[in-house]
């Protein structure tokens, strides 16, 4: 039976934390979402035909999930700017997802960096450089298009988490948070740590990550270490 990163059936009734809830922020299964990114990283290193189909399936699912996170987070972000009500952000699907003990945040970010770099390399491979047999393969052409979309989705996810971290920092300063909100290293710190210890990731990451504001900040902090 194929799995889904959504909690369904009996799992939905109990919720991730064992509470009886129907709130949308418990629809995501953090562990399965993390496993999805791991599967995408592994699939990027395997060119088998069967695995190619599975990889496309995972990329489509990942894009859909990021879109779902974005649809929930963006209006909450706007509402928070107007009200400074931390509860609006605390109950966002993204915050609940990343705050789960089932998801190891550093590993998750590392996998996303790998995805960003791998998809960037795939996109840079021009179709004209493929062999004639590859050009005749609809799977190859479709895969390249899905790689482009997956690249965009990873970047969207990074930007959302960066914004979430900024809101959390502001809420901390205003005394709006509590111990119940948990602790997590900001994503920029995790990215910098990963790029520092794995320097081979630096160049492809900077090529792929096109958000200039945060790209510049990463570069400045990287060279100030």
From TrEMBL:
> Coiled-coil stretches, from where to where?
none
Per the record, GO CC terms?
nucleus; Smc5-Smc6 complex
**Do you know which InterPro entries this protein is assigned to?**
SNI1
GO biological-process terms attached to the record: DNA damage response; negative regulation of DNA-templated transcription; negative regulation of systemic acquired resistance
Name the domain of life this protein comes from.
Eukaryota
Task: Please give one Gene Ontology molecular function term for this protein.
Answer: transcription cis-regulatory region binding
Q: Specify the protein name.
A: Uncharacterized protein
